[in-house]
Design goal:
The complex is a heterodimer.
Chain A lengths: L1 H30 L4 H4 L7 H10 L6 H13 L13 H36 L4 H15 L2 H15 L11 H6 L1 H39 L2 H8 L5 H11 L1 H11 L8 H6 L5 H10 L3 H29 L1 H5 L1
Helix pairs in contact in A: 1-15, 5-6, 5-9, 5-15, 6-9, 7-9, 9-11, 10-11, 12-15, 14-15
Chain B lengths: L1 H18 L11 E5 L14 H10 L4 E3 L5 E3 L2 E7 L4 E6 L13 H12 L7 H5 L3 E8 L2 E6 L6 H4 L7 H4 L20 E7 L3 E6 L12 E6 L3 H9 L6 E3 L1 H9 L7 E5 L3 E7 L12 H9 L3 H9 L4 E3 L22 H10 L12 E2 L2 E2 L1 E7 L4 H15 L4 E7 L1 H10 L4 E7 L7 H4 L16 H12 L3 H18 L2 E7 L1 E5 L3 E2 L19 E2 L6
Parallel strand pairs in B: 1-10, 17-18, 17-19
Antiparallel strand pairs in B: 2-3, 4-5, 5-7, 6-7, 8-9, 9-10, 11-21, 12-21, 13-19, 13-20, 14-20, 15-16, 22-23
Amino acid sequence: MRLLRAAAWRVLISAATLLCVTAVVFALLHLAPGDALDAAEESRVPRAQVDALRAQLHLDDPPLRRYGLWLRDLLHGDLGRSFATGRPVRVAIGERLGLTLGLNAAALALVLALAVPLGAAAAWRQGSALDRWTGLLSYGLYALPVFWAALVLQIVFAVRLEWLPLFGPAPSAARAVGGWTAVRASLAHGVLPVLCLSYPGLAYLSRFVRGTLAEALGADAARAARARGAGGPAAELGHAFRIAAVPMLTMLGFLLPGLVGGSVLVETIFALPGLGQLLVQAVAGRDVPVVLGLTLLSGTAVLAGVLLSDLAALAVDPRLRRA
Amino acid sequence: MRARAAAAAFVLLLGLAACAAPREQARAVPVRAALWKDPLSLSLIGNPDTNAEFVARLVTDSLVTLDARLQIVPQLATSWESGDGGRTLTFHLRDGVRWHDGRPFTADDVVFTWQKVMDPTTQAKSFAADLETVQSVEALDARTVRVRYDAPDPSALLAWRVPLVPRHAAGSEPDLLRSAFAEHPVGCGPFRFVAWDHGQEIRLEAFPDYWGGPPRIPGITFAILSDDRTAWEALMAGQLHLLSMTPELARQAVRDPRARGFQRRSYSPLRVTGIWWNTRSSSAPFLGDPRVRRAFSLALDRQGFIEGVIGPEVGLAAATVWHPGLPYADPTIRPLPRDAGTAGALLDEAGWRDTDGDGVRERRGKPLAFTLLSVTSSQAITERTAEWVQQELASVGARVQIKRMEFTACQERRRSGDFEATVHNVTFDPSPNLSVLLSADPEIGRMNYGRFSDPDTERLLAVVRTSPDAETRRQASARIQHRLQEMEPITALYHARALLMLPPSLHGVETSGVGIFNFAPGPRAWYWDDGASP
């Protein structure tokens, strides 16, 4: 019951925070020089048409009124239409969300699958050759520029060996066939982008897991477990994971929003129509409805990640519940 | 020993593979080309960014079009005549033309297209600007259209390059940009729209019933590829069939052994890069003095910059903003050679001297210094241009501070006149009417960012805009070009060239000042070489 009350309160706070975030983003866009019509490359447009367009897009209205209009539409479930293309923002985001979500989920799964065992092994054998080599590998990967790594992967696996596609998501023809053909095409097109999306996270997270577990292994509780006879890596690491659960869940909460946050570089290099490119184009074009729609999405993801990690921490740590 | 030999053979094989000729294309496959950005709309006339216009001109036809030499040629109008002292233009339309859905093309579609272009919700931008002087468009019968103008307009015909839109397919919804048509356009051009996967690709197929005969390739697929390195690798891997290069890629094309077997076409789009001087700047009032502007122009070694920095394959030194490919370009006007002596003398004459020996000229205690506004760009050529100007002007005693801003912010500054000087590039229609760049009338000179005003130029521009006599317009155009070199309201730097690469088996690809897609016959004449074709 207490957990439910806490959750309800946090949801309310999150909604208010989200509203503030959209207001701040709107204010920043308003303060930025230029508007959607300045962003249009063509300067030869007749003045009467420019005036009509400004009126149509409410560009000359006071900012508070414009934000109010956006909020009113939002309450009716309408995210508005893109200034640049005239298409509904919901559609523009929706058709890119699946790709971004799929790639980021695969990258996150890969990171977790590799970083946790690597970090645990390094923590268990602190100071060993394994620890030193994983450390070196992690820092090396972390320092590798994504654009360079992407280019090398493309040249090796797509151009020279021709094992994987060079760019783009799975073709619509393959997706239309469905079944194994669609899955195989999606997997093949996803391998290189997922590798590029995951290796910086792998480097960071494996070091984080190593550090957290190393600290937990040296904690009083772990020593007490050993004194009670819990021996061997599985048992000791099991104890260490329980001790380190809260910081790890908090970290997971911060990673979850990344599922809907696109990576501009990877999307550009591999020609993937994801949310990162959409955001960059929208900001450059002062496409306020699209920017606000994406802010709402990413803000919700961040707040949901934090909320979930807080609730998970409450669930696993009785001390937090009592507090 | 055996291992070494195997390794050597492996390396040799890799090398041979790298140097091999481009992979030959399977016969009768659609040509794959790259678009740097997803078009904003495929409504054929609405929100026409460059990429949308490429597609529109393949999907549908116009009344008139351009050939590769930029001459106006008939397309859906077989003939036309001017009347009422140049105030009317009557088009006679081609018979037997059908839209891609089988319905016949009629004069009513021309009337509808004009109405939609002038509807602000369509955001037809340059098309609307081109047809601004039209008073009415009337269908006299199914095959005849009469256009009335407020006043005689010598460039009226060129404006009818506007892509045509069918009333029956696009007329049911009031807002063209938001209509289903904008996602699934129907045209009457040589290629039929098939599909648009947003952000991924656009597929067109040959229209077998095209009035001029079907295209010789089965279709064109545009891949949306914004990364030039990926596009280059795709070309090398045979996943793209033609690529218009950025200057950086053009240099790579010279070095990469894999590019040896490809065909190369270098051409000069109607584009100029220059410095717009703010002639009314309150913070740098000396930029209003033509002697100072001319001195700055004389300080620039354009040829040296092109040969040493950007490469002769991607640049052509500019004399004025008048591109050599534009009608009435005067071949006697040459780019100014660097002449630091004359530049210094002009600055002396204007009262700017280096009195304290710090390398910067002063007048009445104020240094000869200004800020050059430039766009932040991923293209190195943009940044190098600003830095080159900074270095060259320093050599004649001017201090230039470069301020880089993103495009939208930069445009806002230019339009509001809130700048001292700015590096900018513009692309032209093949029309000698450059009033939009130079006229002091704010309704006409919408890109006269530096608020240049000169009665002589104004008078000559009016002659080019309105005179019915071609020779009079030619003479006025030549005098404008001379006046531009005297007054330097915009110091032209270079005309960026484009380099196109394509595999040896693709033939019939012509280039022009408007690119490779925007003229006739354009891609309709392309074909894969099967050994028997011409």
